[in-house]
Amino acid sequence: MDKLGYGHRIKMVGYRSDVMTILSILDMVVATSIKEGTPPRILLEAMAASKPIVSTDVIGAKAIIKHSQHGLLVPHGDVEGLVSAMNKMIDKKKKSPKVWLTKRESISKH
Questions:
Q1: Which carries the bigger pLDDT value, residue 10 or residue 40?
Q2: Backbone angles phi, psi at 98, to 5 degrees
Q3: In this structure, what CATH number is given to the domain that contains residue 43?
C-alpha cells in the first residue's frame, strides 16, 4: 500500500475482538482474501455497520456481496482493480455519503 500512496491511510491490524468499535471509525472495509468462509464474517459485520465494502470476488464474498449494490468486487490478484475500486468507493462516498448504506435485510439472509 505504501507503493500505491495509501500507506498513511491504511492500517493492517490483524485479529481484533472489538470489531464493531473499529468499524465505527472506518470509512470503508477492504477484504483481500484469497479464500473465505461462507459467509465471511467481516463482510457481514461491515454490512451490519453500513460500511462501504471492497472485496475480492472469492466464493464467500460473492455469496453475499452484490457488485455495485452492497459493495464492489474485484478479481483476486488484481491490485490495480482493487485500488480503482477503492478510489470509486471514495468518490461515491464524497458525492453521496449514504449511497452505500446496506439494508439489514440483506444480512439476515446469511
A1: 40
A2: -100, 5
A3: 3.40.50.2000
The pLDDT confidence band at residue 33, using thresholds 50, 70 and 90, is confident
Phi and psi for 56 in degrees, rounded to 5?
-70, 155
Residue 12 is assigned to a structural domain of this protein: no
50 to 6, 26, 47, 77, 101: CA distances (angstroms)? 23, 11, 5, 26, 5
For residues 73 and 91, which has the higher predicted lDDT (pLDDT)? 73
**What pTM did the predictor assign?**
0.75
Q: Per this entry, what is the length of the chain?
A: 110
Contact 52, 29 (CB under 8 A): yes
Residue 7: inside a domain: no
